[in-house]
Amino acid sequence: MSLDEVHVKSKKNAAVGAVETSDFPFLNSTNMTNFAYGFAANVVAVLLYGSNFVPVKRIETGDGMFFQWVNCAAILAVSKVGDLMLQSPKFHPFAMLSGVIWATGNIAVVPIVKAIGLGLGILIWGSSSLLMGWASSRFGWFGITAQDVSRPILNYCGAGLCLLSGLIFFFVKTDVETHPSSESTPLLIDRRVNSGVYGPTSSEFWIDLIGSKTRRLIGCLLAVVSGLLYGSSFAPILYIKSHSSCHDSVFHGASLYDLDYVYAQSSGIFLTSTVYFIIYCAAMNNRPRVYSRAILPGLLSGLMWTIATYCWFLANNYLSAVVTFPILTAGYGLVAALWGSLVFKEIRGLTNCFIFTVASCVVLTGSMLTAFSKF
Question: Most exposed: 53, 127, 356, 363, by fewest CB within 10 Å?
Fold first, then answer.
């Protein structure tokens, strides 16, 4: 073989190697490192979001207004610590709108849980949140830049499976009431157990005055609305980032690092919850239902939510929201369902367990497809 033939063969081999590498970009070490960091951060966020309400599973929260205010106060305090650790990046008041939207959706959480249970409630609002958040990121709604993925088919299939899992979970029947003779405990204790001990009697709660079918319907509708608000709550932050490169925009030069906006979002959350609580106190003639036992669990719940948000924003930095959002919303619903089924025995019966297992497999498959669609 001549020297020229050797050079030609080497060039051909190099070209073949280049084609193989381009066909499998996820084999790149940088991509794999980013994927590992992003996926790990997303897993932590899923676990904390899914366990967010576990601290209050045995605590009476009443109509939820006082609990939300305490919860949001903890969110602001923890985010301030994070802001100082990040050396106080520029504060964008427009990012507070993200907190306003989130707090508006969160105000219905306690009525939802009391109407249909934590597991079903999170799974329903997680599904609607998934649809809104994924679609807005993928197609560029609300003036944000549409995010592309390397394998769109995998992304669509993954998001579709995550949504399908939420619909399957809807058919899982859960026991959200506590009976004196029962050994199981729901994620939020039934009001009738503690009536008259730490707050108003159960007859004073509007959710208890309606029939079971109507209560379930209202709970499901509230969960869908809350999910849509959750899914769109991060649009203002994405809007700021999308316009940071526009020279004629007021957000020109804004940070592209998601964690820089957590404090602004948390400020909006606390401000909005405070306004709602003031309106609530006025509507109750300055006799709000305050439950002292809900303070420490509420603070712990806020701590978990804020850490989960930092982890999720960190995951967005490595994988982008179009990948992390379907994994997150489907994942934390699964975690909440696991708490209810394995720990608190809310899911009983062979049929329910079978449906739950099938839905779990679907959500795990959809999450993995969505994650790998980036590479």
Answer: 356
Check: CB of residue 178 under 8 Å from CB of residue 186: yes
Cα(76)–Cα(263) distance, integer angstroms? 7
Q: What is the pLDDT of residue 176?
A: 58
200 or 45, which is more confident? 45
Q: CA end-to-end span of the chain, whole Å?
A: 40
Q: Please determine, for residue 364, whether its predicted confidence score (pLDDT) is greater than 80.
A: no
CA angle 209, 211, 212 (to 5 degrees): 120
Nearest residue to 68 (alpha-carbon basis) of 269, 222, 226: 269
Nearest to 185 by CA among 64, 59, 296: 59
Q: How far apart are CA 105 and CA 145, in angstroms?
A: 24
pLDDT digits (tens, 9 = 90+) for 328-360: 877 887 888 788 777 766 677 788 888 878 887
C-alpha distances out from residue 201 to 101, 191, 209, 287, 354, Å: 31, 8, 12, 15, 37
Amino acid at 350: L
Longest dimension (CA), the chain: 97
Read off the pLDDT of residues 243-292 as tens digits, 9 standing for 90 and up: 998 888 899 999 999 899 999 999 999 999 999 999 999 999 998 888 88
Supply the DSSP symbol for 173: -
Task: Write the pLDDT tens digit of every residue in 23-39.
Answer: 445 456 677 888 888 88
Candidates 339, 332, 337; CA nearest to 312 is 332
Spatial separation of the C-alpha atoms in residues 325 and 328, rounded to whole Å: 5
Residues near 280 by Cβ (< 8 Å), separated by ≥ 6? 65, 288
**Rounded Cα–Cα distance for residues 243 and 334 (Å):** 35
Decide if 229 contacts 240 (C-beta within 8 A). no
CB 53 within 8 A of CB 113: yes
Is residue 81 a contact partner of residue 213, using CB atoms and an 8 Å limit? no
Residue 168's contacts (CB-CB under 8 Å, 6 or more residues apart) are 355, 358, 359, 362
CA dihedral 252, 132, 103, 191 (to 10 degrees): -170
